[in-house]
Structure formats: structure tokens, C-alpha cells
Amino acid sequence: MEAKTPFIKMENIKKTFGKVVANNNINLSIYGGEVHALLGENGAGKSTLMNMLSGVYTPDSGSIYIKGKKVEFKSPTDAIHSGIGMIYQHFKLVDNMSGEENIILGQKNGIFVSKKSIRNKINEICKKYDISTDLTKKVEDMSVGEKQIVEILKVLYRGANILVLDEPTTVFTVVEVEKLFNIINKMKENGCAVIFISHKMEEVMSICDKITVLRKGEVITTINKEEASPKMLAELMVGEEVELSINKEKVRIGKEVLSIKNLSLYNEDKIEILKNISFNIHRGEVVGIAGIAGSGQRELCEAIAGITPVKQGEITVDSESIIGKTPREIINKGVSMSFVPEDRLGMGLVASMDMVDNLLLKSYHHQKGLLINKKDMIEKANQIKEELDIKTPDIYHPIKNLSGGNIQKILLGRELDVNPNLLIMAYPVRGLDINTCYTIYNLINDQKKKGVGVLYIGEDLDVLIQLCDRILVMCNGEVKGELMSFEATKEKIGLLMGGSRIEREEIKVV
Known about the structure:
Rossmann fold, single chain
């Protein structure tokens, strides 16, 4: 029997950036009709490898074969013509255009091709892959899941039968994940090859057939799903035994550190985005917030941090009212608060700066005189690098060239260095490898033991239940309910996230 030809074969691929070896002697085969996971810690070389497959980078050495034919991609267009569709974590869509317009954007359809024939082709693709969505909606009005579907249809419309999905479910609800997995299974049935990059072990074990693990730019192994377990995969990624459990610390609850009463927030169009929110946090307590993306979590964090002005309601930190205060004014009042925002390189850190200068941003205004003394910051940068095991050539290396996990550790290190009484964290483990995630969970528990009050906004419901003492659930700008962690289940949280109220005596409904 003749051996099956792989859709993708990468042989002895090597790619370096200066002295950094991103990929070294990579060998990888992906077959049609299979979903193949690519796992590895942040900085393991996954993105570099896929960027070579999609024509963004050119290998320094080695060969790429598509369905047995050797190819040399000079641009992403060459990869598209070979049937490769790359679907990035950050969507590349035009917000003020409809889904349908985005799908055909840039296509050479010819002047005599009617809208009807284009629509028929899209409908055929939707039917083939069991896709159902309203493509007449503008992208700006779509949910994250709907935008992902438009991205998939865009590459399928261009003839792709090899799809690369990079962290496709980062901000998805449970229902959106199920819809995506149904589409992936239909692709598999229709003979497509799917590369699935994710840090979510349960999703990898659910949807994938084979798993390739990268570590430090090299392939460690390729195994069938049946041979694997989440713990084994984590250890292969890290190179040593790892503990995948959150040990919730029992801490005596202290005095109130944050109080929010009747908080409402309006956008520039005077639409209410936060509706009469009230809750509090005590020292030594981790309070989680669950909710579908866009339910007001980001706006709540930014209101507490003083980034977004508040005109209605009360926010008190350490008995100090901070309503109407800017972040600088809050610091000058002596309020002990740190904020780890959702946007690490937009709001949190300056990408072109190194560790030292990013640490300096938090404290330079305290220095006297015209010249800034960096000596203390250099010492702190070295200390944070060592304590959090930050992988960087040195503390003067621009942080934009580091992996997501290392960037997040720098941001966390800076915010924890001020010894806050209140720590606000918005999606602190989004897109991070499993080992870095548990490092951050341990840091949160360490802060809890020190008596810090923590507001933790996350997507993983299992983690919220294991890590937090209480969980508030938001929907459309409202707090729909509050659960103690010992009574919380994914099902209860999911109902509240969808806007339902749970009529049970043991659940505190707000």
C-alpha cells in the first residue's frame, strides 16, 4: 500500500534572529483529515514556525513541501495560493464593513461576476462546513465568535484546505467554542488539515488527533492524543515535572480595601455600559469576575484605576474616595493600588523600552532634581528577572522582542514591587503557556497571604472556582449574581453569564 502524502512536510527547518535560534532542525508532517495541535511554552518557536509556513518569514535553511511539492514562499500571497489559510489570534477585519464584504475583500472576482454568484459560493461553503451566521452584519456589531467565523470563511473562500488556528478560543464563551469545534470537525470530515495552536489543554485533548510539542525551538515529540495527558504534555513543554493544581490559601479576611456603590458608567454616545454596580473586597480575599467578553469587565477595571472618568456612584480604596481622580492623583493621595491591564503592550508597558525604563515609568515622578537616577531600577530589574525567571538576553533588551509570558511577568513584577493593598488583574494569563499560568496563580496566592485584596477577571471558569473566594458574574454591564467558590459550578456561572437568574436560597442574587 502506497504511503499517504502529507499535506505539509517541513524538513530540517532553521530560523535565527541575530544570536537567538527561534527554530532549530524542525521536522513536522501534517496530514489531510486530521487536527494537529502545536504546543509549547511562550517563546518555544510556534509562531516563528507558522510564520514560515504562511510566507511571513523565509527559513534560513530546510525545506517545505505542500502535498509532496517543494515550495519556497516569498510572501503570504504565495502561501494562500498553495491552499494555506492562517487565522490569527488578533483578527484582520475591517470593522465598518459587513462580514460578506470582508470575505471577498481583495479578491479578483472579475468585473462580470455578480453579487449573486459570490453569495452562492459563500452559501455553498457554509453548507459544506455546517456554518451558520449572519454575514450582513457589520463586523463592529459582531461577537468575537462571529468574527472568528468570518475569518474562517475568508480563507475557505480563497480555496484554503490547510488551516492554522492560532489561539482561536482565547475570549470565547462555552457555546462559541462548541460552534468552532463543530466547524473544525466538518473541515476534518472534508479532508482539510488543521493546525491548532492553544494553551488550553482540555481543548487540545478534546479536538485534536495528534500533538507536536516544541521546546526551546526544537521538536520534542509528536504523539497521538490517546497516548497523552495534560500533565504529560505540560512536562514535555517545560522539560521537568510540573504541578497543575491551585492550592487555595486559607487566610483570615481583613478590613475592607475596596468599596463600590451604585457605580454606573456611560460611553461617549451616552449609552450605559455599567449599570448600578455595588460590591466590596477585603484584605486577604480574591474576588473573581466572570462574564462573556464585552460585559463591562474592562470598563469596571479602568474605572477603579482612574483611567475612565466616573460621574455616578462611589469608589473607595483604603477608605479614600477616588472618584474623579486620575491614576497619578490616586498615587499621590497615597492609595496603595496596582493595576495589571488587559492590554499589556498598549496600556501596561511601552514595547520599545527595556525592563529598566518600564519599571521607571511607575516611580520616576518621585525623584527629585533634573536627572533621573536609574540605579535602584537596575537593581529591581535584575531582582524581578531572577525571582520570576524572566527569559531575556539582558534587562536592557526591548520588551517587544520577548514572548508574551515574559512580558506579562515584567508587568506583574513592576506592579507587585510597590506592595499594593489592592491588586486589580484583567485577564492576566490570556495567551500564556500553562507553566506561566500556574506561576501567576501562585503569585496571586502569595499576595493573598500578605493580606492584599485581589480583583481577578478571567475566562477559565475552572480557574475562577479554584482560585477565588467569591465570584461575581456580569452580563450586559450588570452584576447578575454572586457565588461563593464552594457553591459555584461552571453550569451556575454559565447561566448567570447568559443573563439568567438562579432562584436558589443558597445563592446570593444581586
